[in-house]
Amino acid sequence: MMRAFIGLAIPPELRPGIAAVQEELRTCLPKRAAKWSPAQQWHLTIHFLGETKTESFPVLTRILAEVCRRHPPFALEFTRLGAFPNPDNPRVLWLGIAKTPALDRFQAEASEAIGLFGSYGESRTYHPHITLARPRSPDQPTVDSLRRRLADA
Questions:
Q1: Which pLDDT score is estimated for 143?
Q2: Which of 58, 60, 61, 128 could crosslink 97 through cysteines, CB 3.0-4.6 Å?
Q3: How many Cβ atoms are within 10 Å of 74's Cβ, its own excluded?
Q4: pLDDT for 24-44, tens place per residue?
Q5: What is the distance between the alpha carbons of residues 35 and 29, in angstroms, rounded to a whole number?
């Protein structure tokens, strides 16, 4: 079993903009206050699978390849900075991606196709984002600084 998700790689032309946002966000935090997501791990999660049997990956790959063939490429648009679960208890700092009709259709169809294969239901509302960092037990001044930065975004 392996913890898995379905994700899209971030196009190279968007990476410099994400890096600039991440670097600016670093200035709001003390050194080593967060584990920063390296650029090679940036992705847009389409569907979280959870613990998955590795034997399932070839079938899931075929299902998703068929979904991809039915969708033309679509643009990704950045929205705002945010935190999960919320700015007062930041466990994940993220850069939002706009929920465009094309992204919504692709995500819904991929999730539906995966759901037909097995019990890979996702109970949370879909919030497209790129994870920039995971704060390490932030103290109150760090939380306050983050809250101010997120409010400005």
A1: 85
A2: 128
A3: 14
A4: 999 888 888 899 999 999 999
A5: 11
Which single residue is written with the structure tokens 């206050």?
A: 33
pTM attached to this predicted model: 0.89
Burial 95-106 (b: 16+ CB within 10 A, else e): bbbeeeeebeeb
Pairs from 108-115 (Cβ < 8 Å, separation ≥ 24):
109/67, 109/70, 109/71, 110/6, 110/46, 110/47, 110/64, 110/67, 111/46, 111/47, 113/63, 113/64, 113/66, 113/67, 114/6, 114/47, 114/49, 114/60, 114/63, 114/64
- Find the mean pLDDT for residues 36-56: 93
DSSP reduced 3-state for 33:
coil
Dist CA 149 CA 153 (whole Å)? 6
Strand 43-52 to 34-36 pairing:
unpaired
Query: What's the pLDDT score for residue 26?
Result: 92
